[in-house]
Specification:
The protein is of the alpha+beta class. The chain is built from five helices and six strands. It has a single domain (25-150), classed as Alpha-D-Glucose-1,6-Bisphosphate, Chain A, domain 4. The protein has helices spanning 2-19, 23-27, 40-53, 75-81, 130-155, and strands at 30-35, 57-61, 65-72, 89-100, 103-114, 122-127. Strands 1, 2, 3, 4, 5 and 6 form a six-stranded antiparallel sheet that branches. A hairpin with a 2-residue loop joins strand 4 and strand 5 (103-114).
């Protein structure tokens, strides 16, 4: 009898320890700062292209908020976040672009959605993971690369393709 109780307590402790996360992990939002010389439209198009290339679907787009959706095929997610009506689980990543004096702040946060599309959506905040940070860094590097190549094109003098006149000796 004592062995069963000890075994059950050990199982409960392992379960509680495995499900517990740190407060920092759950509340972390990934963010990057984009220089003011890059326009808001360029930032939005870069965000959309990066997420679409990663397999996310555009869910909503407004002036400063863009949200993307991706179906989560994990069995764990279906067990923990699915419901008896709909076992499908989706990940939603929301990107918020805010202007600051020295540029634009781009922030991303991820949620797990159960009962997607119904009036009883069940949202669980995941914060931002490593892949979210990698996507934001890819967005920033592509914007800086595009800005540098655009500046190089401006500084280059246009090449005159007309042939130079030939002077003839008289």
């Amino acid at each position: 009898m004592k062995k069963k109780i000890v075994f059950m307590l050990c199982c409960l402790m392992m379960l509680a320890n495995g499900c517990a996360g740190t407060k920092q992990d759950r509340n972390y939002i990934a963010s990057i700062l984009i220089p003011a010389s890059v326009s808001l439209d360029n930032i939005k198009s870069s965000v959309i292209n990066t997420y679409m290339d990663s397999g996310w679907k555009l869910e909503k787009e407004s002036d400063h908020i863009i949200s993307f959706l991706h179906q989560n095929d994990s069995m764990k997610a279906a067990i923990f976040f699915g419901s008896q009506y709909d076992t499908r689980v989706f990940n939603r990543e929301t990107v918020v672009i805010t202007s600051r004096g020295d540029g634009f702040m781009v922030r991303a946060n991820q949620e797990v959605i159960g009962n997607y599309g119904s009036a009883f959506e069940k949202k669980t905040d995941l914060g931002a993971g490593e892949k979210t940070e990698q996507r934001l860094l890819a967005i920033k590097s592509s914007l800086i690369r595009n800005k540098e190549s655009h500046q190089e094109q401006k500084t280059q003098q246009p090449v005159d393709t007309k042939p130079l006149p030939v002077r003839r000796a008289e």
